Amino acid sequence: MRMMLMIVGGLVAVMVVAGAALYLWGATLPESHTVTVSETVPAAPEQVYDRIRKAGEHTKWRSGLKSVQVVDAERWVEDNDGGKMPLRVLEAAAPSKLVVKIDTEELPFEGVWTYLLRPDTGGTRVEITEQGRVKSAVFRAMGRLFFPPDQTAKTYLADLKRSFGGR
């Protein structure tokens, strides 16, 4: 019994030290980040803009998206693997620009995505710039370990391209 208590106590101590180290490391990482990814999507800018703009239809082509609840023309709530995320349009200039923001202060992160579309050989060049902020030091550390900052934009862009038959 005594040996079991020593083992459990040792495991708890290791977990506390690991958690503290994770927090301290995360506290040294910057809260904000900006990443830009781009890809040519095999469709006209109007078609691509229309697909991006119709949030209620995103479940048809976006991976990891469970559902979308449309609130109104400018706001919707996405339910994905990370939970529910309210979003709203900040700027819409069809067919060349769309700016979308996380519409709550309650999440441990914030983000603004700017989608720029321009005609390109073979379709539309789509550039996504993510300006994110991760408030929690622990989330920053976990993100650095397991979730590169450009992953969300890259996945979105790959899904968008695939939805038009691209690879």
Number of extended strands: 7
User: What general form does the structure show?
Assistant: elongated
Low-confidence stretches: none
Mean pLDDT: 91
Strand content: 35-45%
Which strand order do you get reading across the main beta sheet?
1-7-6-5-4-3-2
Individual helix count: 4
Structural class: alpha+beta
Gyration radius over CA: 20 Å
Helix/strand order, N-terminal first = HEHEEEEEEHH
Distance between the termini: 59 Å
Which sheet architecture does the biggest sheet show? 7 strands, antiparallel
Residues in helix, % = 25-40%
Comma- or semicolon-separated keywords:
4 helices; single chain; alpha+beta; elongated; 167 residues
Walk me through the structure.
The protein is α+β, with helices and mostly antiparallel strands and about 170 residues long. The chain has four helices and seven strands. The chain has a seven-stranded antiparallel β-sheet. Strand 5 and strand 6 (about 110-120) form a beta hairpin. Helix 1 crosses helix 3 (about 135-145). The chain starts with a helix and ends with a helix.
Summarize this structure briefly.
This protein has 167 residues and is an alpha+beta fold.
Task: Give the helices and strands, then pairings.
Blueprint: H1 2-28, E1 32-41, H2 45-53, E2 65-72, E3 75-80, E4 83-93, E5 97-102, E6 109-120, E7 123-134, H3 137-146, H4 151-163
Antiparallel strand pairs: 1-7, 2-3, 3-4, 4-5, 5-6, 6-7
